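Retro notes (design track)

What went well: tokenization of the new backbones is finally stable.
What didn't: we kept losing track of which sequence belonged to which structure.
Fix going forward: every design gets posted as structure first, then sequence, in one message. First example under the new rule, 332 residues:
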């Protein structure tokens, strides 16, 4: 069986999950790997057969998306060309982690395509949603990477096709410790902005990870370092708590490690606000911004925060087996 595993390369979570999914897919047949987008720092230890431009977004520096850079980087003609040129008919099935080029190519060629992603879980009607409606956000999630069938990962099992998160091997097998510092990963904010805000909370050591620097530096109670997989895992597994965006993988790993967690969803990013709604339902504190008035909430979290109890067993192989058992080629 020829399998195309297509991965969204905007952000690190999709790539991190792929490390655990790919070995299982290789047991099912011959696997080619496609990645589109270029925002991830995590690297795959596998040959990449297709590295495409795709369609993604650029992080801003004050808590939201940099729409100017996003639209500047988006080239619809390149996207259409990539969809048309992808030799999708040579594959028996596409396993898609919210990747648009392969999804649309598969749709036009009528090649079976199964979505296996966090976004699939968000689409489910009974998954937590924010109070404020966002029709554009819903449309993006629905049509960005269409598929024949959807299987998802979320912070909890909200229906039969939603599983608990894939926790990468490095995290699952780590020995968590609780040292006197807090890890910060908020890629939608500049490290200068974060350092300025968090330095006002005295007597707390902050490990800030930034996409925009190449060399680490320390200043008072702030330690800023570039994002890299090994350094981030070391900081995450050893911290007292983590302040991060309302993505999926980092909050999920934090909960698995029983770390205190506080999230700041990106402004006007519907997926993150859905995640924030789910986390808040579980007892995780959510901040709208890092404005001065919210610093007291961070201080209170440091003093009194607790980690919600979760049960995230290793069921990745079971999920993939289930997909191939139920959706053999020609039966979708």
């Amino acid at each position: 069986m020829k399998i195309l595993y297509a991965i969204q390369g905007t952000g690190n979570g999709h790539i991190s999950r792929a490390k655990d999914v790919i070995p299982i897919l290789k047991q099912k047949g011959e696997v080619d790997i496609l990645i589109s987008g270029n925002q991830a720092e995590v690297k795959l230890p596998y040959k990449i057969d297709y590295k495409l431009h795709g369609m993604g977004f650029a992080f801003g520096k004050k808590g939201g998306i940099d729409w100017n850079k996003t639209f500047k980087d988006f080239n619809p003609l390149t996207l259409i060309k990539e969809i048309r040129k992808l030799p999708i008919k040579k594959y028996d099935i596409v396993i898609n982690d919210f990747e648009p080029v392969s999804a649309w190519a598969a749709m036009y060629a009528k090649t079976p395509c199964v979505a296996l992603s966090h976004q699939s879980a968000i689409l489910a009607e009974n998954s937590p949603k924010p109070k404020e409606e966002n029709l554009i956000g819903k449309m993006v999630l629905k049509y960005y990477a269409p598929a024949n069938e959807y299987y998802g990962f979320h912070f909890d099992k909200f229906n039969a096709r939603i599983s608990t998160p894939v926790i990468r091997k490095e995290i699952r097998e780590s020995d968590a410790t609780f040292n006197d510092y807090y890890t910060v990963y908020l890629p939608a904010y500049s490290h200068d902005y974060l350092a300025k805000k968090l330095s006002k909370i005295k007597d707390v050591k902050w490990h800030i990870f930034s996409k925009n620097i190449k060399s680490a530096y320390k200043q008072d109670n702030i330690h800023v370092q570039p994002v890299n997989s090994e350094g981030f895992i070391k900081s995450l597994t050893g911290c007292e708590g983590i302040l991060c965006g309302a993505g999926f993988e980092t909050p999920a790993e934090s909960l698995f490690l029983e770390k205190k967690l506080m999230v700041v969803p990106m402004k006007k990013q519907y997926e993150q606000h859905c995640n924030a709604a789910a986390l808040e339902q579980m007892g995780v504190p959510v901040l709208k911004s890092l404005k001065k008035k919210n610093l007291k909430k961070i201080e209170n979290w440091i003093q009194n925060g607790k980690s919600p109890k979760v049960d995230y067993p290793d069921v990745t192989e079971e999920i993939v087996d289930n997909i191939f058992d139920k959706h053999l080629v020609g039966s979708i």
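Added context from the reviewer: The domain at 169-304 is CATH 3.40.50.2000 (Rossmann fold).
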